[in-house]
Specification:
142 residues, alpha+beta
Length: 142
């Protein structure tokens, strides 16, 4: 049986890197999700399908690397580095994601990802350079 971090790495390889959206549901145990840590804030498989589809439309050559992970009981917490390139011109993009998951056996029962959208869309050229600092300074975008 694979460890939780190995399951997570396989998930990112199959779904994000290879674009195999048909396997998304096979990684989840929907029935085990009735006792969520944060009811109403968990990510659904359909949302993942939509997000990865959008992501793959904007970038190529997605590679996901686990920087650090901690397993405790049914839970896995990981910091991931996602490297890819802009479709428009091939410029490199690198963004960090943190994720916390609860497993039921070898299936995901809950998943709570935090993705750095500001950094991602800034590197895509869809937000201004240093957008985080601009927003903290109160800059309004028309």
């Amino acid at each position: 049986m694979l460890s939780k971090v190995e399951i997570l790495a396989k998930w990112y390889r199959e779904v994000w890197e290879d674009g195999n959206l048909d396997v998304i549901e096979s990684y989840f145990n929907i029935a085990a999700r009735d006792q969520r840590l944060l009811p109403g804030s968990d990510i659904e498989p359909s949302e993942i399908r939509e997000w990865v589809g959008v992501l793959r439309g904007l970038v190529d050559n997605i590679q996901v690397r686990t920087i650090h992970s901690i397993e405790q009981g049914d839970w896995l917490s990981a910091i991931l580095e996602i490297s890819c390139s802009r479709r428009s011109d091939g410029a490199p993009i690198k963004v960090i994601q943190q994720i916390m998951l609860r497993f039921d056996g070898d299936k995901k029962a809950e998943t709570y990802p935090l993705f750095d959208f500001l950094q991602f869309f800034e590197q895509l050229g869809l937000l201004p350079h240093d957008v985080h600092a601009l927003l903290l300074a109160g800059t309004k975008f028309e």
